[in-house]
Here is the input.
Amino acid sequence: MRKRCEVDMRMRNPKYMNEVIENCDFLLDENLFNNENPICLEIGMGKGDFLLNMALNNPSINYIGVEKYSSVASVAIHKIKEYNLTNVRIIISDVINLPEYVYHKIDTIYLNFSDPWPKKRHAKRRLTHESFLSFYNNLFKNKCHIIMKTDNDNLYEFSKESFISFGYKILKDYQDLHKESIFNIETEYERKFSNLGYTIKYLEVEKELQ
Ligand SMILES: C[S@@+](CC[C@H](N)C(=O)[O-])C[C@H]1O[C@@H](n2cnc3c(N)ncnc32)[C@H](O)[C@@H]1O
Here is the structure.
């Protein structure tokens, strides 16, 4: 499973990478969106299918995608720029280095197919480790609200325990998301792994901001 993130890390820089990033007019800045609509943050947006389709389907919700690799983010930017959306912003950064102007602005965090980091000694790198949950407290505006999807059983179990021990209440817990009749926008990894026969696990959790 760890091979998944290595694939992205090894991804060759697209030819258009620098040009696409330099000319991108929806990179995140302190103006955010200039409206009061709710803001969702996708951490590790990859090539951006989820972010793009969520933004197209929900024009009165704002979406920020954060991705740490320029090569991957440039593919998302290339795709999204065709749509001239006003409700999408991208930032190329490790989530932990998000600028403080994003603090206390976020309504929902999406964690889609986060790297599972299967080795125990790497548990701290999982985006649902308590150190990340603690950091996310800085980002939320009112309630802390997280939606995660994964094909990985260990990450699902780990995350559920981590959410509960951090005081989150489980709102939805699906072992096989694609059997549920709820609105679902698929991500690139979701398509890939469900085509390989993996079931998709889904957790939606919430907690008061203390
Ligand atoms: C396994 S991929 C999933 C991509 C996409 N969400 C999907 O479902 O198709 C995980 C992505 O998260 C990014 N990522 C991992 N840790 C991150 C971090 N701390 N900050 C920002 N992006 C991160 C990786 O670079 C990678 O593109």
Remarks:
- DSSP finds seven helices and seven strands in the chain.
- Residues 4-5, 8, 43-46, 66-69, 72, 94-95, 112-115, 187-190 surround S-adenosylmethionine (CB under 6 Å).
